[in-house]
Amino acid sequence: MMQVNHKSLPRISLVDPCCARGYDVPDLENGGLGGTEATVLRVARALRSNFEVELYQNGRSDAYRSPAGHLLPLSHAYQRLNSTAIVVINRWKMALKLRKLNSDTPIFLWLHVYPGRHNRKMGAALKEAGVTVICVSKTHARSLTAFLGSSNLPQVTAIYNPLDDYLRPDDTPRDPNRLLFASSPHKGLAEVFEQFSALRDTLPDLKLAVADPGYLNWETGPVPEGVTFLGSLSHAALVRQMRGSLCLFYPQTSFAETFGLVMAEANAVGTPVLVHAGLGANDEIVPDANQRIDGHDPAQIMSRIEAWQRATPRMNANPAFRLSSIAHAWTNLLCGAAQPQTHLQQSVA
User: Fold this and answer.
1) Which of 21, 111, 237, 327 has its CA 20 to 30 A from that of 224?
2) Whether 311 and 326 share a structural domain
3) Which CATH number is 49's domain given?
């Protein structure tokens, strides 16, 4: 168990230049948060036992003390920060700006996305600036390494996005005709509608519930019969939807996840996930081959749904995704950055 000298905790600055508005711990339950913001809050809150945490947010106008740390407007980050380490979320150019202001502070780029081709020069710039990149899966890290090339490669590591430790299967009965899509519509919902419509030609009692966090409008084409829109749900309400559904229905073939938090959460509460094999981090986050199919093949999708209707498999969380494990990985990383100033001491409970 980690014992802390609270007299002088190392300070960690998290900088989120991408969010549209400020967000805080209550938003985890209220709904409307994307997976990145939810992950930032969970990690920040978990780190507070060992670090003083500052979280600078785009769209925030006030400073506020929160269970996730000291929440501050992004504009306050444009100065020399008296921090042991700085972690910038997604924007590599922001990491370079902060390097100019903080020449001797360890800086990390916490990357949650696959960079586009116009960002290819980021590798050489980050390498020269001494910025380490934290990816959210091993698949993500391998993809980034291949994208940047060996000659322009900064230090790259991977830490998974966290699952809450309390997520476990329970005895909620599952509706064998209820499928669930629980992502922003830009993550392949138009294709999911087509796949669902094809299933319904043979299985007319099927229903598809769509839980949309609501942070992005996206054209998805005609809505098939049997679809219900749930809107933006609290996290607890979303978990209840997962527990009562036959599966998380996500066999789309176009949007590559760097992690796929909702897939990991569904498995954690016992719900199977139907995903397209080989796409993004799907094979890593959903390693059970029974949950992976060729999303281009309607017959495979039909076969798996019918098999699960006869006997739904019982899934479990990957322990490597648990918040307790992820907090330990972050603490080890940041303690290394904090040396020799850190006052953290290891002891065995």
Assistant:
1) 237
2) no
3) 3.40.50.2000
Host domain of residue 239: 175-319
Alpha carbon distance 44, 39 (integer Å): 8
| 184 and 291 inside one domain | yes
Give pLDDT tens digits for 144-191: 999 999 888 999 999 999 999 999 999 999 999 999 999 989 999 999
pTM across the whole model: 0.90
CB 191 within 8 A of CB 249: no
Identify whether 202 is part of a domain. Answer: yes
Q: In DSSP terms, which residues pair with 86 in a beta bridge?
A: 13, 107
pLDDT in tens, 49-62: 999 999 999 999 99
